[in-house]
Amino acid sequence: MVCALLTVFVSAQESLENDRANFSAxxxxxxxxxxxxxxxxxxxxxxxxxxxxxTHNFLADLDFTYNQWGLTRSALASFxxxxxxxxxxxxxxxxxxxxxxxxxxxxxxxxxxxGLYHRGLQVSHPANVRTTFCxxxxxxxxxxxxxxxxxxxxxxxxxxGFKAGGGVEFGNGHGTKVFTEARYHQMLVSDGPDMKxxxxxxxxxx
Length: 206
Fold this sequence. Notes:
There is one protein chain. The chain is mostly beta strands. The protein has helices spanning 2-19, 73-79; strands spanning 21-32, 43-53, 58-70, 83-98, 106-135, 140-170, 177-187, 195-205. An 8-stranded antiparallel barrel has the order 1-2-3-4-5-6-7-8. A hairpin with a 7-residue loop joins strand 7 (177-187) and strand 8 (195-205).
């Protein structure tokens, strides 16, 4: 009788774990592909993912990622400006397939997805702006000049895209896990080459 109750309890615990939602957050560096490396330096990324644990081995998640790169010297020279950056954010649906049994301390997984991508480009140069500074302690205000980055040109577009990759998470099967992953992204562009890049991300998963 006791053994039967323990079996039911363990099964219920595993069922609850499978029914739980999941959430992850991380950041890392982003490498442009060969086509983009002449215009973009290695950049950085942040990402958030969450959804439903359909089973232990299959997750249905929504994913938001943001990537930013500084422009190379040659790209800035073509614009005739000293500063600039490009960025891409995406909102996608991502099935995730885990490749290890429940409670495994190391779990490799594969992930793929598709959805909406936004690409932006901005170039700027330093400029002096007159403003008023107020010292709240002494209660006085006086005019001053501050240096800011003045945007001289910008561009943005929305297009569909997709991603695919994999990673490994580490933990004891309960609570917080750490993970590392890499994904290939491709934003489909109608008036030029597709935007392609590979973010490498490190983070935590609950």
